Amino acid sequence: MGVRTPRTTxxxxxxxxxxxxxxxxxxxxxxxxxxxxxRPEAGPVTAVGGAVIDRTPSAVKDWAIRxxxxxxxxxxxLGILTAxxxxxxxxxxxxxxxxxxxxxxxxxxxxxxxxxATGRPDSTSTLDAVPSLVGALAGAAVLFCxxxxxxxxxxxxxxxxxAGRATDGSGRPMGRRPFILATAGVAAASTGVGxxxxxxxxxxAARAAASRSAVRLPAPASSAPQLPRGVQVGVPGVAPxxxxxxxxxxxxxxxxxxxxxxxxxxLRVHGKGVGSPLDVGFADLLGRDLIERDITMxxxxxxxxxxxxxxxxxxxxxxxxxxxxxxxxxxxQGGPADQLVARSxxxxxxxxxxxxxxxxxxxxxxxxxxxxxxxxxxxxxxRMLVPGLYGYVSACKWLQDLELTTFDEYDAYWVKRDWxxxxxxxxxxxxxxxxxxxxxxxxTVVVAGVAWAQHKGIDRVEVRVDDGPWRDARLADEGPLxxxxxxxxxxxxxxxxxxxQVRATDGTGYTQTDKRTRTxxxxxxxxxxxxxxxx
Length: 535
What we know:
- This protein is α+β, with helices and mostly antiparallel strands.
- 32% of the residues lie in helices and 21% in strands.
- It contains 10 helices and 18 strands.
- The strands form 4 sheets. The chain has a 5-stranded mixed beta sheet with strand order 2-1-10-5-6. Strands 3, 4, 7, 8 and 9 form a 5-stranded antiparallel beta sheet that branches.
- Strand 7 and strand 8 (372-373) form a beta hairpin.
- Mean pLDDT is 91; it is low at 155-174.
């Protein structure tokens, strides 16, 4: 028998941990390549990530958005992979004493992934469980085999004896060579499987991209009004009136951006009070009379002074006309449905008041954004927009279904998570320049920013320094009612630390409150302020 030394124990421990990591890697790559055949969203990382998002308390989600912005999904993916790696190492170390138990424990990975995949709102088949289960079986087999090799007697220089040691054809001890070769082989094979998965996914994504590239947006039947020449104040640092697509905020729960083929896309309109259910395709929408409008959108997760607001020129089908074609009437005209539930291909549901959608505002099914088809990140091929409502109750991306129902009968995704059923955008204003803790020189300092109150308009913006009197800011020329408005004020700055504060008054005469509230349940309120140090 060989003598057990600290060095041999450490080597075996490291080998066992490596066995677990390689087995986990194999499980993950096999699961992802199987998911290509079943449904990419059924892959374990995407499925588990989606389940984590669904079950995370709203306050935590809001914190993640504040801390990580649009990188929140990347952080979640890294967290899942880190947890998987830790679990794999633990199973590898367990295999030092209990190989079969460790291999069976690896199947837990498959069960968790399977439950997560079949429990997602967008899951329509138990086949979604297959990728995780097949991957787990592969991982269990790899762990069982590699851990057996890792536990084989050590080579002479590892401190072990020769008794019972595996030898090559010439009778020389093989040491850990079989383990090293097997581990390297499995890792290489897993990498190959992973590359195949990426290639197949890239091929599908390329087909979707080709579908988007082939779209030729028709001219609108009703064009957007020409913007006034003075719609921008011309102050560096102020957000542009029209937000470029690449800079438009993105807040959603999709861990993987759906990439849909426009030629295969369908929309169903059905439910209470629908006399003529509709089933329309993308070409049918493009063949209708489209409207073009400048509309500012706001996310309910936007803190006071936050970045999750942007304005674009949208092209789409008037939603009211589509609903009327289906025979829908608003509650004020005797319609039985008061909620329009929009469903995304990723299972997201958003509920909008039917009365608001049909009250004459430019609610639409958007197909274009700033002169091009919707980017995939913003809902290609079709998303919904309702000016004046926060996105979580109106702006469904990757739309596939519209159902007429009532608020009493159905709670949409965010309502189940303690957000308000109805959420009109609150009147807000923001200081874009100077930035917090800036050090401008004394003299005239231009303070400028934006204010918004979609579907009400902005009539006045005021600024004050420290606890001094409110001063009227100069407003840029007014754009459409559903867009934000820029403003500026020339401040005779004096040396020292100062607090700048802004408030807006909308078209109804309402002036922003100074009472700060959280974003939950229906959007933040309060006045934006920045501290600067004048030199």
